[in-house]
Structure formats: C-alpha cells, structure tokens
C-alpha cells in the first residue's frame, strides 16, 4: 500500500482495501484481531498474501487472530486452533493440522480442489 499513500481507499482494489482495513485495525495495537472472510472475492495470489500477513502478525507480534473463513483449507493451514461449526454449534475442534487430517472435515469442507 505504500505506493498508494495518496490514493483514496474507495479506489483501491479489493485486496488493497482488505489490507487497508487490517492496517487500520492494527493502528490501535489490539491484542485480538477479528477477521470476517478476509479472502472473500479476492484472487488466489492476493488471498495467499493476506493469509501470509495474518500468519506473520501472529508469529512476530503474538497477535491473536479470530478468523471466520469459508476457505477452510487456507484458514486451517494457518490456524493454531480451529473450530467447525454447523448451524451455530461447534461440532469439532482441534489444531489446524488435526482438522486438516480429519477424514470428516476433509470430506465436508476440503474436497473439491481447494487444496
């Protein structure tokens, strides 16, 4: 975003707008960052950049990130802990790696080319 410093937020691309909103949230130095569908409507390369940034924020700053995401594979790859919800109820939980390896989770959420 550095090269777009003088550009209005509404004229940024979807990925740039997502990065801008995360950056604005980080200015308050939160201990917890809530993200709702940060990958929605973004190109795969931009999704990877967003997820890489989330991972780095967690690792380098110890920031807790609560991520709600339909891209189950991407979310579980970066998650320390994951929860599967059905109709508002938690039906499974575990580490991201455990859930990625779980046959039920794979069948319900990961099959179909998302990995």
Q: What fold name stands as the CATH topology?
A: Rossmann fold
According to DSSP, the number of beta strands is: 4
Alpha carbon gap, first and last residue: 28 Å
The description of the largest β-sheet is:
2 strands, parallel
The pLDDT mean sits at 87
| Annotation field: number of helices | 5
CATH class type: Alpha Beta
Can you tell me the overall shape?
A: globular
| CATH architecture classification | 3-Layer(aba) Sandwich
CA-based gyration radius: 15 Å
Query: Strand content of the residues, in percent?
Result: 15-25%
Number of domains: 1
Stretches where pLDDT falls below 50 for ≥5 residues? none
Structural class: alpha+beta
What's the arrangement of strands in the largest beta sheet?
Answer: 1-2
Order of helices and strands: HEHEHEEHH
Helix content: 40-55%
What do we call the CATH homologous superfamily?
Answer: P-loop containing nucleotide triphosphate hydrolases
Structure overview:
The chain is an alpha+beta fold and 115 residues long. It has one domain (2-110): Rossmann fold (3-Layer(aba) Sandwich). Helix content is 45%, strand content 18%. The chain is built from five helices and four strands. The chain has helices at 14-26, 44-61, 72-78, 96-101, 103-110; strands spanning 32-36, 64-68, 82-86, 89-94. Strands 1-2 form a two-stranded parallel ribbon. The longest helix is centred in the middle third of the chain and has 18 residues, at 44-61. The relative contact order is 0.11.
